[in-house]
Design goal:
The chain is α/β, with parallel strands linked by helices. Among the domains are: about 1-120 and about 125-130, Alpha-Beta Horseshoe (Leucine-rich repeat, LRR (right-handed beta-alpha superhelix)); about 160-340, Ribonuclease Inhibitor (Leucine-rich repeat, LRR (right-handed beta-alpha superhelix), Alpha-Beta Horseshoe); about 640-740, Phosphorylase Kinase, domain 1 (2-Layer Sandwich), CATH 3.30.200.20; about 745-980, Transferase(Phosphotransferase), domain 1 (Orthogonal Bundle), CATH 1.10.510.10. The strands form 10 sheets. The protein has a 21-stranded mixed sheet, with no helix packed on it. The protein has a 7-stranded parallel sheet with strand order 31-33-35-37-39-41-42, with no helix packed on it. The chain has a 5-stranded parallel sheet with strand order 20-22-24-26-28, with no helix packed on it.
Length: about 1000
């Protein structure tokens, strides 16, 4: 009987497993069908990420992006973020009934959000951000009671926010991001709505109206509230934020909020923040807030690092108690009606880095205590009523980069001690009552890189010769003063100068010929002086000058409507009675000068033709000489010596091993190609992943061998964390290859442009880190490598990204080795690089330094130029080869034409493009500052004259400072905020 019972038990157990197995198999088939239906809605998969989603394979838990439970019986997660997928989201996804994580962010999905997602009752994380989804938010999402993380930001959603989404008593939501859409209507939350677990609410950049709902005060755990850039109204939500003791970031800027008591009382709101002991950033800009800044502002948490109150209607004085906020790094009160004097107590904030007080009604003297702020890098006191002299203590501001004091009532003289501000890049003292001479120490500030503006003052004396030391400055304006004497010819040493304004002074004598020879001068104004003599012919011959004013002087001679003067109007020359010529409106020259008018151009033409013939003959001889040198030159070591050295340094890898690792160099392993060969991914038997750069010796011929040896030479001699490391080489008469580690995150090119195969987003912190890595790598090559190396072909596709997002400079096929003295180099082409026929011009179009086109050899300054183009490309999102730059302009010139008055849209677009996770832009003040500094650094690096560019060591130091600036507590909070 016992045996019979045991037999029945075994039978029942076997039957259970059989039935259970069939049920599990049925569940997997349901999930598989749902996933294949989802795949059918994907119309473009450029990375072939869904290639292994195949109906013939039941192991769907091994499919890309799929996560299953322990028993591998149900799909729990679907993560396809950043794969450049295009198409629509299939409603069949709702059949994945056990799904807990659904992440389709950073793709190109279109259409609507399927309402069926509301059936996924176990869903805890839903992210559809950074797509092209339109339509309304389905009300069914409010049924997801277990949902913790919801991110629908950066899409094209419209309509109202469903009430059920914000008013679900069973809701577990901790993170809600609906930002950067076109949502309208009110934030509908009645008093019964209780999102008690909510920690992050991001609704910035929509079209929301109405007031901040009182029910939001139930979310007492809120840490981050961002309602910027909407049309919200009513009083500042003091009663709401008072009940949020965990609040760290509060962004209410650019709405229609008002202060209490009829827009007269800010005390109520500031007092409501006293209990928010972790508050770090407060932004209330652009709301037309009225009232005075109450002294209670000093009782806000000392954790505050940024306060933005600009562009409001705030009046009264700056309370001295604000100095209690000793951790502030940025204070912006500009664009208000603040009066009174600048309190001395303000300078107790020793960590202050940026202070904006411009466009107010401040009066009194500038406190000498300003010099006690060791970290102050920007000081903007412009457009006030400040009087007195500029303090000598400004000399102690060793970190100051921008000093803006224009449009005040300052008097006295310019203190010579300003010349000690060795990091100063912008100095604007215009529109004041400053007298005296321009100090030689200030005129000789070689650190000035953008502009010097001393216009509209009472300065007298001569134009200092020391101005010639400003060889990096782009603009000088000393107009509307009482300057006298002559214009020094040495001003021609300001070789980066683009705009020079000397108008409305008492300058006399002739205009120096050297001014017209400034190689990049675009604008010149010398009107309303006492200048005489002929207008220099060098100005008419200039290829860069676009705007000129010579009016109201004593110029004489003939002016022809040719060259740079072609198309100029008579207004630019009026008030010079002794001028004549062919400019429309100008009097014709008398007949007795006709002979001279005819003979002089003929004589000039003859000399010009002879000069051209001489230059042509010289260049032909130079080309023949260079070709002979290239034909007879050899590398420092022969190929055999290279190979022998590699045997001692690198592991031996056979040709057969490379064939096996790359599947016989199959197309399936091809990850890149060029004119001289292909790059294949491979994997050795020990699971080492590699990239094999195979040189096509049949089509590339002799040049391929030179490129191969050049890259081997560079990689063999250099060791740095930001340079690609060589594993080994393989060289046979019919086969040459370099084996490198495979970079799992592709190249920077893949990240910058959505059309590329790789489309993961980078935020600004990552980009600055990458720029720093590249700068450190180049600085090593230029200054610290055993053999100095000029890369010659820096561009995004040659910057590879490691598994930990470290950037490595790669592709040294046309690099130049420099031993001691400057040596000649062999220039070798690749798929995207260009070389002139005489070997003088190396690099990629758009990144080539301008001096290379004039015959200069490759230099470290050329690499700096390429790096500057890279910075401008990153910020603008434009390739230097875009069609808008193919008509005589360049990326550098386009950005410069927008700087500074039109630069804001470029910064805002970059801010949106590089926001962390495509969703968080509350840091826009800090981030705007960083983006602006990257633009300025890019402009400095791409100055036309190589002598005015900084070294890569300087650039690396500057970007390291930006990294440190971004590593503050604000940025640390901007990373992933998923709670699970």
């Amino acid at each position: 009987m016992g045996s019979y019972c045991m037999f029945n038990s075994l039978f029942l157990l076997m039957a259970f497993f059989v039935v259970s197995g069939e049920v599990n198999n049925s569940q997997i088939l349901i999930d598989q069908a749902s996933l294949l239906s989802f795949k059918s809605g994907v119309v473009s998969d450029p990375k072939n990420s869904l290639e292994n989603w195949n109906s013939s394979k039941l192991q769907l838990c091994n499919w890309s992006g799929i996560g299953c439970n322990v028993n591998r019986t149900r799909v729990l997660s679907l993560d396809l973020s950043g794969l450049s997928l295009r198409g629509t989201i299939s409603p069949a996804i709702s059949k994945l009934s056990y799904l807990t994580i659904l992440d389709l962010s950073k793709n190109f999905f279109e259409g609507h959000i399927p309402a069926e997602i509301g059936l996924l009752t176990y869903l805890r994380e839903l992210s559809l951000s950074t797509n092209l989804i339109e339509g309304t938010i389905p009300i069914e999402l409010g049924f997801l009671g277990d949902l913790v993380y919801l991110d629908l930001g950066s899409n094209r959603l419209s309509g109202e926010i469903p009430k059920l989404l914000l008013c679900n008593d069973t809701s577990s939501l901790e993170y809600i991001d609906l930002s950067n859409n076109s949502l309208s209507g009110e934030i509908r939350m009645n008093n019964q709505c209780q999102l008690r677990q909510l920690r992050f609410l991001l609704l910035w950049s929509n079209q929301l109206v109405g007031q901040v709902p009182q029910a939001l005060s139930n979310s007492s755990k809120l840490e981050w509230l961002d309602l910027e850039l909407n049309a919200l109204r009513g009083n500042l939500p003091s009663e709401i934020v008072h009940k949020m003791p965990q609040l760290q970031f509060l962004f209410l800027s650019y709405n229609n909020f008002s202060s209490h008591n009829g827009n007269t009382n800010l005390y109520t709101f500031f007092s409501s923040l006293e209990n928010s002991s972790n508050l770090q950033e407060l932004e209330l800009a652009g709301n037309s807030l009225g009232g005075q800044i109450p002294s209670i502002i000093g009782d806000l948490p000392t954790s505050l690092v940024q306060i933005h109150l600009e562009n409001n209607l705030i009046f009264g004085s700056i309370p001295p108690d604000i100095s209690k906020l000793f951790n502030l790094t940025l204070l912006n009160l500009s664009g208000n009606y603040i009066n009174g004097s600048i309190p001395h107590e303000l300078f107790h904030m020793k960590r202050l880095e940026r202070l904006y007080l411009s466009n107010n009604a401040l009066s009194g003297y500038i406190p000498s205590a300003f010099g006690d702020n060791p970290h102050l890098g920007l000081l903007d006191l412009s457009k006030n009523q400040l009087s007195g002299s500029i303090p000598d203590s400004f000399a102690n501001l060793t970190q100051i980069r921008s000093l803006l004091l224009y449009e005040n009532q300052l008097s006295g003289t310019i203190p010579p001690s300003l010349g000690k501000c060795i990091n100063l890049e912008i100095l604007d003292l215009s529109c004041n009552r400053i007298s005296g001479v321009i100090p030689n120490e200030v005129a000789g500030l070689s650190s000035l890189k953008l502009y010097l503006n001393l216009s509209s003052n009472n300065l007298h004396g001569p134009v200092p010769l020391e101005l010639s030391k400003m060889d990096m400055v782009l603009a000088i304006d000393i107009s509307s003063n009482n300057l006298s004497g002559t214009i020094p010819p040495q001003i021609g040493s300001c070789i980066a100068l683009e705009y020079l304004n000397l108008s409305s002074n008492a300058l006399e004598s002739s205009l120096p010929e050297s001014v017209g020879k400034l190689p990049y001068l675009k604008g010149l104004d010398v009107s309303s002086n006492n200048l005489s003599g002929n207008i220099p012919e060098s100005l008419q011959a200039s290829s860069t000058l676009k705007e000129m004013k010579f009016s109201f002087n004593n110029f004489s001679g003939i002016v022809l409507n040719k060259g740079a003067f072609s198309g100029m109007s008579f207004d630019s020359f009026m008030g010079n009675p002794h001028l004549c010529g062919s400019i429309k409106g100008m009097r014709s020259c008398s007949k007795k000068r006709t002979c001279g008018v005819i003979i002089l151009p003929a004589l000039i033409s003859s000399v010009f033709i002879i000069l051209i013939l001489c230059i042509f003959g010289y260049r032909v001889a130079l080309k023949l000489s260079l070709r002979r040198k290239i034909a007879t030159s050899t590398c420092p070591e022969t190929e055999e010596e290279d190979h022998e050295a590699n045997e001692h340094i690198h592991p031996k890898i056979s040709y057969q091993q490379l064939i096996k690792a790359t599947g016989g160099f199959s197309n399936a392993c091809l990850i890149g190609s060029g004119q001289f060969g292909n790059v294949y991914k491979g994997i050795f038997e020990d699971n080492t992943k590699i990239a094999v750069k195979v040189i096509d010796t049949r089509t590339a011929g002799e040049l391929s061998g030179k490129s191969f040896k050049r890259e081997c030479q560079v990689l063999k001699r250099t060791r740095h964390r930001n340079l690609i490391k060589i594993i080994t080489t393989c060289s046979r008469p019919d086969f040459k290859a370099i084996v490198l580690p495979l970079m799992p995150n592709g190249s920077l090119e893949n990240y910058l442009y959505p059309s590329c195969l790789w489309n993961h987003r980078l935020d600004l912190v990552q980009l600055v880190n990458i720029c720093s890595d590249v700068a450190e790598g180049l600085a090593y090559l230029h200054h610290y490598s055993p053999v100095k190396v000029v890369h010659c072909d820096l561009k995004p596709s040659n910057i590879l990204i490691d598994h930990d997002m470290t950037a490595l400079v790669s592709d040294f096929g046309i690099a130049k080795l420099v031993k001691g003295s400057d040596q000649g180099s062999v220039c070798v082409n690749d798929s995207a690089s260009f070389c002139s026929t005489d070997g003088l011009l190396c690099g990629s179009l758009g990144y080539i330094a301008p001096e290379y086109g004039m015959g200069s050899q490759a230099s470290t300054e050329g690499d700096v130029y390429s790096f500057g183009v890279l910075l401008l490309e990153i910020v603008t999102g434009k390739r230097p080869t875009d069609t808008i730059f193919q008509e005589g302009s360049s990326l550098h010139e386009w950005v410069k034409s927008q700087y500074p008055s039109k630069i804001e849209p470029i910064v805002e677009q970059a801010l949106e493009r590089y926001a962390p996770n495509g969703s968080v832009v509350p840091l826009n003040r800090l981030w705007c500052d960083v983006l602006l500094e990257l633009i300025e650094l890019g402009l400095i690096c791409t100055q036309y004259s190589p002598l005015t560019r900084p070294t890569m060591d300087d650039v690396a130091h500057q970007i390291a400072r930006l990294k440190q600036y971004l590593s503050g507590p604000s940025v640390e909070k901007s990373g992933s905020t998923k709670s699970t």
